[in-house]
């Protein structure tokens, strides 16, 4: 698998330098959000706002009022937990073209509760006027920059940093989910880093005789409920959602709402954080510990089909392990 | 655009109009008219460079919130004139001063008196807590502390665009209890945003009562200076002093004018309610009638004729 180093850094610089109305805002996490090179090479387009996110969000609303399209860079949690009021009043309500670039979604950070955005999708998708995107590979990280900037209003993006695998060749297009396999036993819906886990599981499941229909979502709002329902209707046993997020309010909830509103009776298993906080640790450890990895998906498939597959960890594709303090990350956090 | 009235006349008329409205509706933000009448009159009548209103004299009804399906949405900012490079922009940060701001729009000829009859009526854009779509408003400031940050962002953007027009914020002193106010000042100072200025109604009152009882804020002039602003102070009821304070040079920094006001200026009878002044609702018909008589006499206007009921 091709690994791409810091895809956001290059993509943002290439895009922003061609669009003078784009401003690069940072809240003291400049190298952690891979915009340190941009800051150094394009200081006139870079704005440091310090550790003061409440001001940064309202300030960005003011920049939007002046006709600029600010890209806000921070860890996802810092863009909505403390400054939620400012997000609502200064950005979402007036539909400012503010691009919220949320790094370290879910358990992709060892920073523990304060750093892990585990309810960001549920918060963001309930905000009127908000668009919510999530990148799942290097190609999506690269293409999310320009795509997010087409939105006529605010947009929140879950961004992956550091060494990111390339799973796709086609760029991210808002509203276009990816159909990664078209099986008819079980529908698996993933997004972000859980797509890679589902791809690991799929090969072993196929060898065990389970036919998986796999959808990868990159647009979480607007949510294409009709397509989800169509895919769910075409599988025999039911639906599994696997998300790097709490199962409440995220993709599991969205799929449940879609099935219920359509009156489609299908069993649904929602994998992800089950009404719990996570803690600090490596990504593979956290995904395994909280039941968000490939083997957890296999077990859920067995529950849906009622048949054991005898798949164990050894039968799955290799787990990709990044050292927490690796060269591709500027720092641990 | 300059009004034909003097700023003193506008300020007096704001008090009289808010008084009349409050007596008639048995409640209103009356004390804010006492403390802020000169400040708003000064901003609209002489300090700000505002073009003529682009909006109808009688405000249109509420036409929906901003959404992708509401392309015709407009804010109330057009009452302050067109958005262009040369004119100033004004945010009313404490949105509960809306009644006073609307009265000011009427007195400077930007809104018809009938507009105030729509105040706080269902389906009206003339809302009790000023919303984006309310006359004279451009952004939501109903949660205190966000106005100065938004104005700093707008001012930074306007400077980058080469606009000569400045950005002004009318603020209330209760906002200094919010951490965001200090974040905004430090950011404006750090980035040299000097096309930004604010005038703050320092009436030392807040919803629960006197600020010193609710949350002591100390010497706010020193605090603002320490965070990087240029600070000028004046008596909020002395227009000559207000002119001098607002003319203070502030290269490379935002200017904060602290206008020290009295929450019962021009209506001393309200002192009988002190410190419950944030929203005046009369406790009895007797109090209402007494206030109607006494304040009218202080203002030199006839008492409000109340309908029999």
Provide keyphrases for this structure:
heterodimer, A: 333 residues, alpha/beta, Rossmann fold, seven-stranded mixed sheet, 33% helix, B: alpha/beta, five-stranded parallel sheet, 7 strands, globular
Topology readout:
The complex is a heterodimer of chains A (333) and B (309).
Chain A lengths: L2 E3 L1 H10 L5 E5 L9 H6 L4 E3 L4 H13 L3 E7 L8 H9 L6 E5 L16 H6 L5 E4 L3 H11 L6 E5 L3 E3 L12 E5 L3 E6 L2 H14 L4 E6 L1 E3 L3 H9 L4 E9 L4 H12 L5 E6 L9 H7 L4 H12 L28
Parallel strand pairs in A: 2-3, 2-4, 4-5, 5-7, 6-7, 10-11, 10-13, 13-14
Antiparallel strand pairs in A: 1-8, 6-12, 9-11
Helix pairs in contact in A: 1-6, 3-4, 7-11, 8-9
Chain B lengths: L6 H19 L4 H18 L41 E4 L5 H10 L6 H4 L29 H15 L5 E6 L6 H12 L5 E7 L2 E2 L2 E2 H4 L5 H7 L3 E6 L3 H8 L8 E6 L24 H15 L10
Parallel strand pairs in B: 1-2, 2-3, 3-7, 6-7
Antiparallel strand pairs in B: 4-5
Helix pairs in contact in B: 1-2, 1-3, 1-10, 2-3, 2-9, 5-6
Q: What would you note in describing this structure?
A:
The complex is a heterodimer of chains A (333) and B (309). By secondary structure, chain A is of the alpha/beta class. Chain A has two domains: 125 residues, 3-Layer(aba) Sandwich (Rossmann fold); 136 residues, Rossmann fold (3-Layer(aba) Sandwich), CATH 3.40.50. Helices cover 33% and strands 21% of the residues of chain A. In chain A, the strands form three sheets. Chain A has a seven-stranded mixed β-sheet, with helices on both faces. Chain A is globular and about 60 Å long. Chain B has 309 residues and is an alpha/beta fold. Chain B contains ten helices and seven strands. A five-stranded parallel β-sheet of chain B has the order 1-2-3-7-6, sandwiched between helices. Chain B has a two-stranded antiparallel ribbon with strand order 4-5. In chain B, a hairpin with a 2-residue loop joins β4 and β5. The chains are: A alpha/beta (333), B alpha/beta (309). The interface between A and B is medium-sized, with 30 and 34 residues.
């Amino acid at each position: 698998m091709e690994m791409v180093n810091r895809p956001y850094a290059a993509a943002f610089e290439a895009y922003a330098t061609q669009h003078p109305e784009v401003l690069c805002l940072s809240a003291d996490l400049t190298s952690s959000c891979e915009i340190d090179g941009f800051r150094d090479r394009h200081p006139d387009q870079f704005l440091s706002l310090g550790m003061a996110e409440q001001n940064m969000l309202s300030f960005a609303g003011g920049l939007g009022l002046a006709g600029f399209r600010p890209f806000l860079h921070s860890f996802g949690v810092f863009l909505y937990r403390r400054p939620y009021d400012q997000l609502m009043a200064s950005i979402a309500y007036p539909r400012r073209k503010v691009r919220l670039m949320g790094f370290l979604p879910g358990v992709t950070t060892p920073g523990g509760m304060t750093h892990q955005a585990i309810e960001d999708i549920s918060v963001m998708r309930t905000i009127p006027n908000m668009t919510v995107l999530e990148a799942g590979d290097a190609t999506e990280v690269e293409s999310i920059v320009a795509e997010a900037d087409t939105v006529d209003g605010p947009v929140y993006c879950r961004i992956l940093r550091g060494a990111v695998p390339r799973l796709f060749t086609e760029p991210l297009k808002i509203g276009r989910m990816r159909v990664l396999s078209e099986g008819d036993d079980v529908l698996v819906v993933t997004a972000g880093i859980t797509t890679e886990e589902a791809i690991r599981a799929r090969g072993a499941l196929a060898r065990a005789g389970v036919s998986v229909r796999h959808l990868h979502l990159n647009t979480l709002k607007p949510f294409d409920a009709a397509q989800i329902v169509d895919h769910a209707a075409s599988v025999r046993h039911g639906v599994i959602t696997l998300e790097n997020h709490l199962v409440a309010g995220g993709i599991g909830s969205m799929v449940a709402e879609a099935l219920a509103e359509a009156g489609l009776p299908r069993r649904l298993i929602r994998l992800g954080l089950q009404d719990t906080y996570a803690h600090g640790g490596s990504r593979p450890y956290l995904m395994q510990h909280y039941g968000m990895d490939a083997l957890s998906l296999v077990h859920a498939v067995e529950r849906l089909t009622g048949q054991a597959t005898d798949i164990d960890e050894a039968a799955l594709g290799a787990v990709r392990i990044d050292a927490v303090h690796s060269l591709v990350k500027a720092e641990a956090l | 655009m300059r009004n034909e009235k003097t700023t003193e006349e506008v300020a007096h008329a704001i008090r009289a109009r808010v008084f009349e409205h409050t007596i008639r509706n048995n409640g209103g933000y009356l004390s804010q008219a006492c403390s802020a009448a000169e400040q708003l009159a000064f901003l609209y009548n002489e300090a700000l460079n505002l073009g003529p209103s682009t909006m109808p004299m009688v405000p249109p009804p509420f036409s929906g919130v901003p959404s992708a399906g509401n392309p015709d949405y407009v804010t109330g900012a057009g009452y302050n004139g067109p958005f262009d490079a040369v004119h100033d922009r004004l945010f009313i940060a404490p949105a509960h001063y809306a009644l006073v701001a609307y009265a000011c729009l009427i007195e400077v000829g930007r809104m018809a008196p009938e507009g105030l009859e729509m105040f706080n009526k269902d389906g009206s854009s003339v809302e009790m807590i000023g919303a984006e779509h309310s006359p004279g408003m451009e952004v939501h400031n109903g949660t205190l502390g966000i106005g100065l940050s938004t104005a700093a962002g707008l001012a930074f953007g306007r400077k980058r665009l080469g606009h000569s027009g400045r950005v002004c914020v009318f603020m209330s002193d209760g906002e200094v209890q919010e951490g965001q106010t200090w974040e905004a000042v430090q950011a404006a100072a750090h980035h040299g945003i000097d096309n930004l200025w604010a005038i703050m109604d320092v009436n030392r009152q807040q919803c629960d009562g006197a600020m010193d009882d609710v949350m002591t804020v100390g010497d706010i002039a020193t605090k603002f200076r320490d965070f990087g602003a240029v600070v000028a102070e004046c008596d909020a009821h002395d227009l000559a002093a207000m002119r001098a304070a607002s003319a203070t040079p502030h290269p490379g920094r935002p200017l904060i004018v602290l206008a020290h006001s009295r929450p019962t200026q021009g209506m001393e009878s309200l002192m009988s309610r002190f410190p419950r002044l944030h929203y005046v609702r009369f406790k009895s018909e007797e109090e209402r009638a007494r206030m109607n008589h006494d304040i009218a006499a202080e203002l030199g206007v006839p008492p409000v004729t109340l309908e029999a009921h």
